[in-house]
Amino acid sequence: MRVLAAMSGGVDSAVAAARAVEAGHDVVGVHLALSRMPGTLRTGSRGCCTVEDSNDAWRACDKLGIPYYVWDFSERFKEDVVQDFIDEYAAGRTPNPCMRCNERIKFAALLEKAIALGFDAVCTGHYAKVITDTDGNPELHRAADWAKDQSYVLGVLTHEQLKHSMFPLADTPSKAEVRAEAERRGLSVAKKPDSHDICFISDGDTAGWLAEKIEMTDGDIVDETGAKVGGHTGSNQFTVGQRRGLKLGTPAADGKPRFVLEIRPKENKVIVGPHALLAIDELKGIKVSWAGLPIAEVATGEEFDCYAQVRAHGDPVPARAFITETEDDGVTRQGLTVTLGEPLRGVAPGQTVVLYQGSRVLGQATIDSARSLARPELP
Amino acid sequence: MYLDHAATTPISAPALAALTSVISRSGNPSSLHGAGRRARATVEASRETIAAAAGAHPTEVIFTSGGTEADNLAVKGLFWSRRDAEPKRTRILVSSVEHAAVQDTVEWLEKHEGAQAVWLPVDANGTVSLTAFEKELADGGADSVALISCMWANNEVGTIEPIAEVVALAATYGIPVHSDAVQAFGSVPVNFKDSGLAAMSISAHKIGGPVGVGALLLGRAVTLMPVLHGGGQERTVRSGTLDTAGIAAFAAAAQDVTQNLAAESARIAGLRDAIIAAVRSAVPDAVLRGVDPAHQPEKRLPGNAHFTFPGCEGDSLLFLLDMAGVESSTGSACTAGVPRPSHVLLAMGLDEDTARGAQRFSLGHTSGPADVDAFVKALPQAHASAKKAGMAGHVSSIQTASTS
Q1: Which pLDDT value is given to residue A149?
Q2: What is the CATH number of domain A279-371?
Q3: What is the mean predicted confidence (pLDDT) over B383-401?
Q4: CB 3.0–4.6 Å: which of A170, A367, B354, B400 could bond B350 by disulfide?
Q5: Helices B244-259 and B261-282 sit at what angle, rounded to 10 degrees?
Q6: Pick from A153, A176, A192: which is nearest to A50 by CA?
Q7: In the prediction, which pLDDT does A250 show?
Q8: Could you give the CA distance from residue B10 to residue B4 in angstroms, rounded to a whole number?
Q9: What angle do CA A287, A289, A293 make, to 5 degrees?
């Protein structure tokens, strides 16, 4: 196969590319330029698309004896990922930009260009597995190492996208193994630190970054009874489940810490309350997609057993889910209702719920609302 | 097949012979003993050869590490010395299609030295506007001008600029003119003395010499503030131990290329015209940028063909041609290898999308009909695929959760 290896400049994508080469594929390395103003050097684990990252990817390709190119997706990235991130926060939701990047950049803009230019697949260093059945239909599964598993951030990929995806790190027992393999292969990135945080917010200060992009106005922080307990400088900077940085003047009656329960951007209001009230057990999702062919219950609307995961490194909880369909301007839209067997805390609209059966990823939806079936509506 | 001679051209046989024979001999040309004198003799003989090739006096040749350093030295050096002589001279008149070595230097002077850049517009072919020059110099405007910098020939679209006219205008007011002649020297007739320029940059590796050596031709009456300080070599204008072997190879390349200039540029222009014809026939909507050599052959570098391909991303074309064994260029400056729409094409009035579809094919001394044939064979498929891939900025047609 002709394989385009997306090379971030990190160790995972370098080893993934190496394995694709070793498997006999015709591999070309491509670094995605996602920023128009790349920094020159990385500082710690922050930053992305720096000249240093590009050079590291380049050196890895030299080592593997494959061609290397830099392709500019900065414009698309700005619109589809960065602007979406801003818009979501402005609407009081908490988006996952990495997921969005996989959905619209790596496995859409890049994949589409790759296919047009004669490639069969895009290969990345994600820890996840694609299993193809005898009819050629792909299924997405968790990586062998559940601790490193990244199937959550790939849960948004569709049947079409998965057909052209390659994740050679799938069966690697651990990250340490990948680093050791990089070392053995003489890849200079073997000891490079992992990336964390959001790549386009180079100093890691998300609230400060958002404050420059979103118009923030002062408003009230109220508790679960509706009583004002403090003020804020803009409701959009908060995330459900957040405890730090609330700067509440009035202590809670029970003296216990309080958490953000809900954000109401229209009223510019932040509602806080005790930890117990964070627990939710019903999610409603929109923008549903299926990672491969949908399971039978999707068509019938029957409820099905699954596991639900709401963050990249969160434990999945047992759940039951069913699909609803609504007509909107002649377009049929799927909605997802998930009832959790165990409550989850700190679930914010905008986050993604990914559904699993065993190791298999069924699909995902963007959380539109989350509530506790027992908890009364907040005032 | 190598179609990127404007980036660098393979070393010529005489240059390689000079390089390998001289590099094995030790000796610092500034030393006073035998080894030093021998090295110095090589440097001075080379200086004379290069001076003769470029129409200059040997004392006017200041060796540098290449074109970029020569441009920095000329622009900064002239700015500083002219402003020191008269503090109100803070303006730099500069064409808007300069190579980054001039463009960035001028921007640096703006930021750190209080210079004011006047970017002079070009027409649709990339030819700088003489009217704009005139206007800036008229009505006392000339009094505040430190220098003028205008390239001899553009590195992207191959347009040859009206240097004689620019110099004539500047001469009226006694303003020194610098020209980046890196692309022109060795490709079209260039004569420093006849040009009337105060300073002119040239580079070895664009003419078959090695990378890492170049020269600033500097009029003997022109004073220049040095950029590199040290041992006082090169009229104290450019300190640093001279690269004897590189200079010898530069001289050998310069001699070789200027000796055969007329015949060789006609031969290369013939290949270039074949490429232009091939592109036009394979891709009728491709647009030749710069001067059409069918009408004004003397206003375009013989080795340069530059096209924009509507609906294609330059980097897609480059990739596909590269995979097919044809090495070309998007023609614009890169940051971390990221192609940005060319400032030259934007100055010529193109919009960003059009400019992103640029591809430069440049020929040189090793080019032959086989290169053109390989290119003609590879282009149609490469273009079809690049067109299919479309522009990177477009919304992907792959449907996902957030698009449906």
Answers
A1: 93
A2: 2.40.30.10
A3: 88
A4: B354
A5: 80
A6: A192
A7: 66
A8: 10
A9: 160
**Counting every residue, how long is chain A?**
379
Give dist(CA B396, CA A229) in Å, integer.
Answer: 47
Mean residue pLDDT of chain A comes to 90
Please give the average per-residue pLDDT across A284-313, as a whole number. Answer: 94
Burial B168-200 (b: 16+ CB within 10 A, else e): ebbeeeebbbbbbbbbbbbbbebebeebbbbbb
Per CATH, is A215-277 categorized as 2.30.30.280?
A: yes
pLDDT level of residue A17 (50, 70, 90 thresholds): very high
B260 CB contacts (<8 Å, ≥6 apart)? none
Q: Which amino acid is at A217?
A: T
B312 part of the active site: no
Does domain B13-258 fall under CATH 3.40.640.10? My reply is yes
Backbone region of residue A9 per phi and psi (left: phi > 0; alpha: psi in -120 to 50; beta: other values): left
Query: Band of the pLDDT at B334, cuts 50, 70, 90?
Result: low
Count of Cβ atoms closer than 10 Å to residue B310 Cβ: 13
CA of B403: which chain A residue's CA is closest? Answer: A287
In chain A, where does the domain assigned CATH 2.30.30.280 lie?
215-277
Per-residue pLDDT at A167 exceeds 90 = yes
Level-2 CATH architecture, domain B261-389: Alpha-Beta Complex (3.90)
Q: What CATH code is assigned to A2-191?
A: 3.40.50.620
* pLDDT score at A171: 84
pLDDT over threshold 60, residue B192: yes
A45 pLDDT above the threshold of 50: no
The pTM of this model reads 0.89
Contact A112 B396 (CB under 8 A): yes
| Identity of the residue in B316, B396, B401 whose CB atom sits nearest the CB atom of A117 | B316
Residues of chain B with CATH 3.90.1150.10: 261-389
What number of residues does chain B have?
404
Burial class (CB in 10 A: 0-12, 13-18, 19+), A251: exposed
Give the Cα separation of A57 and A60 in Å (integer).
Answer: 5
Least Cα separation, residue B2 to chain A (angstroms):
16
Tokens of B230: 């040290």
Whether residues A104 and B402 touch (CB distance < 8 A) is answered with yes
> Which residues in chain A are classed under CATH 2.40.30.10?
279-371
Nearest to B341 by CA among A82, A76, A36, A38: A36
Asked if A33's CB is within 8 angstroms of B337's CB, the reply is: yes
Q: Which helix (H) or strand (E) holds B304?
A: strand B304-308
State the residue for tokens 């997921």.
A99
Report the gap between the CA of B96 and the closest CA in chain A (Å): 22
User: Tens digits of per-residue pLDDT, B235-285?
Assistant: 999 999 999 999 999 999 999 999 999 999 999 999 999 999 999 999 999
All residues of chain A having their beta carbon less than 8 Å from the beta carbon of residue B398 are 107-108, 111-112, 158, 160-161
